[in-house]
Design brief:
- The chain is α+β, with helices and mostly antiparallel strands.
- It is about 60% helix and about 15% strand.
- The protein has 4 helices and 3 strands; from the N terminus they run H-E-E-H-H-E-H.
- A hairpin with a 3-residue loop joins strand 1 and strand 2.
- Helix 1 runs parallel beside helix 3, helix 2 runs antiparallel to helix 3 and helix 3 packs antiparallel against helix 4.
- The longest helix is centred in the middle third of the chain and has 24 residues.
- The protein is globular and about 55 Å long.
Length: about 140
Amino acid sequence: MVCAATLIADQISKHLIRRTFIPGESHPVLDPVLYLTYVQNTGSAFGLLKEYTLVVILFSLAVIGYLAWELLKANSGEGIARLGAALVLGGALGNLIDRLRFGFVVDFIDLRVWPVFNVGDSAISVGVGLLIWHSIIDRKPER
């Protein structure tokens, strides 16, 4: 459910940006902290690996396949780990859909001190944080 909600929120927000902005257009939401800025990101996170689109797509497919497998397995983890995996999966799917449809990922959340990102990127970041939390802090010691 979390995965689907993340994917839907990601794709709807990107659709709205594509419909109402032209690439490079920017508008303040909370000046000077938050802007909506339409960026077409042909790379991976933070615009890295722009020349390696196929590698990024293949890596995304591998991550998506692994996370989907883990989420579908019976007893595949505790709540926080499942939530983290679902957020990463939803965000990765949203960005993969963009790459396959348009050849780029739609980014639009602009904090001016960080590369422009999107809802899927946020979900991936929060999901990875939850997975790290689970694996380092929340895990009970084995006897």
